Amino acid sequence: MSGNKADQEAAFLSEDQLFDALTKSAFEFLDRSIGEFSESAKFSTVHFAVAIELFLKARLMREHWSLLLDKPDLADKAAFFKGNAKTVTPDQAIERLRRIASVSITQGSRDIFNKIANHRNKMVHFAHAGEAAVDGPEGRSSIAEEQCAGWLALRALLGEWREFDDYVDDIWRISRKLEGHRTYLQKAFEIKARELQAHRDAGLRASLCPSCQFESVKVEEPIGLISEASCVVCRYSGAEITVTCGSESCGEYIVFAAYDGSPDKCPHCDAALSNDVIRDCLDTGEEVTKDNYFEIRKINCPHCSGYHSVVEHHDIFICLNCFEMDREYGVCGYCSEGQLGGVPEHSSLVGCEFCEGSAGRLRDD
Asked: What is the DSSP pairing of strand 338-340 with strand 299-301?
């Protein structure tokens, strides 16, 4: 009788209530993951991976509940709200967010989410493959790095997605709890002390890492207005970008981390910092004129689905939307569009991030 009553109550949940339940459950798994880390890095990883999956599903559900189903065309609302339906995998959720909601997750974030998910799968299904050793000092340090990077990526998304504005207190709480992971990374920081000092002795800077919170990010010599940066303790990598305020009465330098994105306004005079101002600072490529219009390649960003959002800054190509960068770009053999980082092999057949190639056209026929 109690089971039937639970099914009836679930069937009357609104989509708002289900979103709230999914989100609260995700935070509960994060709390459990951090709380049990010192006793079992294995179960901590399993619960961390589940939390990431729930956050992705909660965001996808904000588009429509049926998108959470493995086969939306066979959607049964009653079965779904009772929990009797097969739902999407994290990879499927990310792909549907991109294709249906135009919500892109950067490759760096996808990579760390996949790494955590793969570790979770090995720990659950392949305990014989050496994953049992994660509870040793080195194993815990590695998992701590992973979770710091995973939360950094997740926190950036939750801050960007307005659907989670009501959960800022939970986000802050998890950030504070994860500071305990620094204990497991302290040894790695001490080992890298000489390397960091040599970096400073060479006249370069080390800055605070937004992931592990050590002053362990090596900021390299700038290439134009971009200085590549990477943490020697954890998995954080990015860049510092310097632009100039567009206000004639100000003209001060504005420095921001590529991972955090540009501020909305100048910190010195409060003037708006528009995308046009950033483009004027960073675009050092050849100016488009009527004489070379067809020779200048327009480049898209596969990380955020930015259309013609990539500019050339000296020998770096950088997206003005998400600030992902690369030394190279490729040209699709089917749509002839440029793509940051390159295009798939045989792109004329399989297409790129922005087209389906000739195979898609033939399939439609």
From this structure: parallel
The pLDDT assigned to 360 comes to 63
The whole-angstrom distance between residue 315's C-alpha and the CA centroid of its chain comes to: 24
Alpha carbon distance 136, 279 (integer Å)? 48
DSSP 81-111: HTT-S-B--HHHHHHHHHHHH-----HHHHH
Which residues does 295 contact at the CB level (< 8 Å), separation at least 6?
none
CB neighbours of residue 91 within 10 Å: 13
Beta bridge mates, 340: 329
- CB neighbours (10 Å) of residue 32? 17
Helix (H) and strand (E) counts in the chain: 13, 11
Q: pLDDT digits over 104-115, tens only? A: 888 888 889 999
Beta-carbon contacts of 240 under 8 Å, excluding residues fewer than 6 positions away, are 207, 219, 226, 227, 229, 255, 256, 257, 258
Give pLDDT, residue 59: 94
Residue whose tokens read 């792109």: 347
Q: How many CA atoms lie within 13 A of 151 on its CB side?
A: 31
In sequence order, what DSSP letters do the residues of 70-83 get, joined into one string?
A: SSGGG--HHHHHTT
**SS3 state at 117:** helix
- What Cα–Cα distance (Å) separates residue 345 from each residue in 78, 108, 349, 362? 44, 21, 9, 19
DSSP state of 323: -
**What single letter denotes the amino acid at residue 17?**
Q
Q: Give the predicted TM-score (pTM) of the model.
A: 0.72
Tell which residue, 272, 264, 263, 262, has the closest CA to residue 318.
262
250: left (phi over 0), alpha (psi -120 to 50) or beta: alpha
169 Cβ neighbours under 8 A, 6+ residues apart: none
Provide the residue ranges of all domains of the chain, joining segments of one domain with +: 2-187, 192-282, 299-364
The pLDDT value given to residue 106: 82
